[in-house]
Structure formats: C-alpha cells, structure tokens
Amino acid sequence: MEYIFASDPHGTGKAWINLVKQAQTDYPDAKLVLGGDYIDGRKHSKETLDFVIEQAANPNVEVLLGNHEDMMLNFVEKGDDLWFLNGAKKTIKSLLGRGYSQNKAKALLKATPYYQFIASIRDNLSYEDNNFLFIHAGFDIKHPEKRDRELLLWARDEYFYEDMIRRTFAHNPLDKTIVTGHTPTCIIDGRFLAGRADGLPVEYKEDLINYACPVLKVQYKGEKPRYLTDNGCHGDLPSHHGNVAVFDENGALVKVYS
C-alpha cells in the first residue's frame, strides 16, 4: 500500500490540484492524506478548498487541519485578527468574491460551506496507523507522548532539533515514519548527529538564494525516517506548486510530484 501526502498549497489552486490528481492516477489504491494550509498566500483558495471538500467524501482520503485554517476559525468564531497578518485578505476575496470589512467578512464567512467544512475538521490534527504518522507541523520531539494542539499546528524547532541552539537534528522517537508540512524546507537548516542514515548529507543548509524547497529526509541508522515536505507556496515563489509525496508502506519515498 502506498501513501500520498499533499500539504500546504496555500491557495495555489489548479497547479497543486493537478499534481495531486496525477499522483492519484499513478497510484490509484494509495491512501491520500491532505496535510492542511489549503488557504492564504495565493489567490485560489476557493478552488483549492472545493477540491479538498470533494476529496473528503472519499473514504480513502484523510483531511487534516492546518494552522491557517485554525486562524480562520479563530477569526470567525472569536474575532482573533492574527489571520490578517497571514494572508486573510486574499482568502476572503477568493471565498467571497471581493474584500469586506472584518465584521462583514466574519458574518459572511460563517454562512459559507467553506467555514462549515473547516469547522468540521477542526479536530483532524493527525492521521496515524501502524506504519505512519502524518501531522501538519510536528510535536515536542522530546515528549512524543504529548500531542499538544498548538504544536501539532505550529511546531518548528521543537520538532526538528534535539538541541535548538546547535540545531542538531533529533532522533525519531517513534517506531513509524513521520511526515509533516508547515515549514518551507528552504528555511530549514541543521546538522546530523553521529549515525545518520546512509546517503544523507552531513547537514541541510538554509537556501535564501534559490529558495529550493525539496522534500527533506531526516533519519538515523536503525530508525524510521522523518520527512519534511513544505514546498514554500505561501511565499512569493511562483514556480512552486507543492510537493506531493508518495511513500511505500515501509516508509521509503517513492516519488515527488512538484
């Protein structure tokens, strides 16, 4: 059995949708996990959410919440305006057809099927089976038994590193492959401790020149891998359409559609 993980399109729309559809065509029996952050960043949030909602009707598809959907919920339900620092205006224009004041947008969004769908997945923070754990962002790598909502949606360094000052990659504390999105891989830098898996570099370096955002693998010998997949669609990177990653049941990365 294969798994497809597609996360963080951030309103990319058709270009990301086509990558997911191609992966589904090539691997028709694969479990599809959509990893969150469908909105904000680019102007096609409506088109992206229409596709996600359509996919959610398939029993072989799991749809996770991202921190951007959580910010939208917090705005509509509590008036929290953090969302407006993270791409809300483009999403509102896409979902409602034009911009509105915050009060008006809140009322109009609450009546849409998009808010209702996002509200229905508010507790979909991970998908886990015997082989894999898929999460939007991560968790406290030193306390894997704790699945704090805030970290599941927002974690970065707490999940990546054993030592956040030295930026040394942590070991995988679980006996399963972990796959995340959330953090564009071009801004991840860190070094491996002794015993990294064969074929991996000594370190990954931040790339703020080319902004290449490939799928990164973090693995030590004798452990299951961790994969970091965010392709940077939230940034102003027009050639980036997402990393749609296919894995086999043993945790090997089979193919990336990008």
Automatic annotation (TrEMBL):
It comes from Ligilactobacillus salivarius. GO terms for cellular component: cytoplasm. Gene3D superfamilies: 3.60.21.10. One of its GO terms (molecular function) is bis(5'-nucleosyl)-tetraphosphatase (symmetrical) activity. InterPro entries: Ap4A_hydrolase, Calcineurin-like_PHP, Metallo-depent_PP-like. It comes from the Bacteria. Residues 4-185 form the Calcineurin-like phosphoesterase domain. This is Calcineurin-like phosphoesterase domain-containing protein. PANTHER family: METALLOPHOSPHOESTERASE, ZINC-DEPENDENT ENDOPOLYPHOSPHATASE. One of its GO terms (biological process) is RNA decapping. SUPFAM superfamilies: Metallo-dependent phosphatases.
